[in-house]
Write a structure and sequence with these properties.
The structure is a homodimer.
Chain A: H1 20-39, E1 43-44, E2 50-52, H2 53-57, E3 69-72, E4 78-81, H3 86-95, E5 104-113, E6 125-134, H4 139-155, E7 161-167, H5 168-178, H6 184-192, H7 194-197, H8 199-210, H9 213-223, H10 232-242, H11 248-263, E8 269-271, E9 282-291, E10 301-306, E11 320-326, H12 327-333, E12 345-347, H13 355-367, E13 372-374, H14 381-390, E14 395-398, E15 406-411, E16 416-421, H15 422-431
């Protein structure tokens, strides 16, 4: 290569590299979720990153449309990077409907892109994690999505997640009773902002919208809860009374709740009538998830039941229920909760002639499920310790015994040594794995 | 939503959806590899899908440049989708060199894009899987990459992979001895095509290139092996003699081979002097991997040692050694070797009032590590069996006993039933997991 100026290494605005300290916990979470979704019989799919612009735009006009990252490709086609995993899934369902057995339970964890101007903490490239059940409309599938949400957070070791559930059909009943169902889209969007703009501002905007103080107050009294921790069924009873009695939606909620009780997870769920989700395609249950003590970061897992997902691309009626975990947001909230550890142990290189022995020891430790690094060169020990520290490796092995299979195990934190056999080393190191 | 024409669901030319039957084995392979790479102390990184065109083009002029999928974005910037994981890694190393401790061992498994015209079996979007050790130049790191290749195929349960290794430095010594080192780039590319165009065509083109029959024959005799299975060290002895004796490169190969022997994996490796890798940045060992009986699909894992990866973006000298598994190609070759099974067992819905019990049974089976699906509606049994078959679910549970925790387990293949406890069901089902 000729001598030349170097090219300034940089990434595009709104994009970022992921260093190992961020990527290790992310891969661990994704792997946990994949395994857990599979345990419910959900299957993975994938779709292209790039699609026809007309497919992703759909009927157009939505909030997300302005954010679509689009281009003209070499062939003059209008193409765009997917901005979520829902629209490609709708297209996918229509395109493959004869290859899929309904109900179809899929998950999809991958990147999406937005062309919006990046703000603090928001990026143009981020990872979504969606799971949906398509082809049925019943309490059983609603309850399974909620069960999968609760158990996923359990599996991710996030104990302080609280699931806020409401029902769009119940809210629409209220709007119908009040004679303002024609304003439902605007009212939904307004109520959805409650957490952001506060109760007073919501009331003022509501009044301006419905032009009737009593109606505004009725809506506000429906979505407000005096006691945040009011038990699910108490809230449901209260709301049913406000709606003038039970209907198919309140009964659906009662059945869903009975299934949560059957599983013993009902205490993780609150009936929160202020949850509406801004998007107008939801028709049944809707939900958001907040981390107790970190509510300000917003919902880390949201979704709901929709009546007809793929109607833009097929005449087949496909109701469904689904949820989406905001992985990057969740990881940011959990920062520091996960160990960044490149290896469990480093085999030091103190005597080059021992390297074949080091290879054999590493092999046996790896077979026992340990993460093992070898130091490649017989450098001075401080340099080797420094490398171990930079990689957050807590222990080191020094091959210094005549008998192969026995060596010194050093704790790099306490700087203490112990002579151990391979079997003893495995037991010790396994016990301290994160 | 108003009545409207449906949008024809379709994907861009050269792109494809991944159905669960393809995505399940792919995720399983990726997960196996992530875990295995980690066991060697390799850490994951990620880089943006989209980069500045000037970064990805680098010095330009290469074969891959024509294939870069590039666009002008909304801000008028020339941007491109990454076409491999090597160039972004070089940029990443330069940009983060003060945050990384050398040697840096990373893996990166993700999608790349090519704008070339798609041909049979080639797509514009595919997955690469790279692993590299950067910051050292020694036999220990060379041997670790080879060890990781061999054990990765072992872990993926691909027993018929054969690793063909050569050394670019040895080949350059030959060209130097013959006085044709100035033609080395063209000779490398030509020899790299040997497998495709055959020995005779290679000889003719070589003769035309070096304009000397004796030189052409000397090169050809160096790269040819009469006995395909000639032991590694025998080939090395023979080639060292052709080069006029041992030099630093032959000695490096001897040390690498001694480490493969220390690990007991030397029989998986052949010294194959016809391996040159077309790319001119390789300077040391080079390798390709063929599946015995499926050689025609080409190499499924290739790479080598390079002298200076990131020189376009930094003045820091960064030698390294790395390898890349062609996941999509490998999966195509292994098609059918993996079970597509959405769940291990389906709990049938024969009595709606039993659904809470079904939820509890499913929970216990999942906690035991099983994949369990619930049928949501009390449909007729043939419909439930049909769904199980479409999802390749081999067993069903019928809740039909008075005592909770005991039920009928049905083998959907043999159509035989047995009454079992939960504990017995777990044991039976675990035994038959793939």
């Amino acid at each position: 290569m000729k001598d030349q100026e170097i090219i300034q290494p940089r990434v595009l605005k709104g994009f970022r590299d992921s260093l190992p300290s961020a990527q290790i916990p992310k891969e661990a979470l994704v792997s946990t979720l994949q395994k857990h979704f599979s345990s419910y019989g959900f299957v993975p799919i994938d779709t292209p990153a790039l699609e026809y612009m007309e497919i992703l735009l759909g009927k157009g006009g939505g909030e997300t449309d302005k954010q679509i990252f689009h281009f003209t490709d070499q062939g003059g086609r209008e193409v765009a990077l997917r901005f979520d995993l829902t629209v490609p899934f709708a297209r996918y369902l229509a395109q493959h409907e004869h290859e899929l057995a309904l109900p179809f339970k899929r998950y999809h964890i991958d990147k999406v892109w937005r062309g919006e101007n990046p703000q603090k903490g928001r990026y143009r490239e981020f990872t979504q994690c969606d799971f949906d059940i398509v082809g049925v409309d019943n309490a059983e599938s609603d309850a399974e999505i909620l069960s999968l949400m609760a158990s996923s957070f359990e599996k991710m070791n996030v104990k302080h997640a609280r699931f806020h559930v409401a029902h769009r059909g119940m809210f629409n009943t209220l709007l119908g009773n009040l004679g303002v169902e024609n304003l439902s889209v605007d009212i939904l969007r307004l109520v959805d902002k409650l957490r952001k703009i506060g109760e007073q501002e919501t009331e003022e905007q509501l009044r301006a919208l419905v032009k009737n103080e009593r109606t505004a107050r009725a809506i506000l009294s429906y979505i407000s809860k005096e006691d945040e921790k009011e038990p699910f069924e108490t809230t449901l009873d209260r709301l049913a009374a406000l709606l003038g009695g039970e209907n198919e939606h309140t009964l659906r909620m009662r059945t869903i709740h009975s299934y949560l009780k059957a599983e013993g997870i009902e205490e993780r769920f609150l009936f929160d009538p202020s949850i509406t989700r801004g998007l107008d395609y939801y028709t049944g249950i809707v939900y958001e998830t907040f981390l107790e003590g970190s509510e300000q970061i917003g919902s880390v897992c949201s979704g709901g039941r929709y009546n007809d997902l793929a109607s833009l691309y097929t005449k087949t009626h496909l109701p469904g229920v689904g949820s989406s975990i905001g992985l990057d947001r969740l990881l940011a909230a959990l920062e520091g909760a996960y160990d960044y550890r490149a290896s469990d142990v480093l085999i030091l290189n103190t005597d080059k002639s021992r390297y074949p022995e080091a290879i054999r020891v590493a092999k046996r430790l790896r077979e026992a499920g340990l993460k093992v690094a070898l130091f490649f060169e017989p450098k001075k020990l401080p340099a080797q310790y420094k490398w171990a520290e930079a990689n957050a490796i807590p222990k080191a092995i020094i091959l210094d015994r005549d008998e192969e299979g026995s060596f010194t195990l050093r704790d790099l934190g306490t700087r203490t040594n112990a002579v151990v056999s391979i079997g003893e080393a495995v037991a010790l190191l396994k016990k301290e794995q994160p």
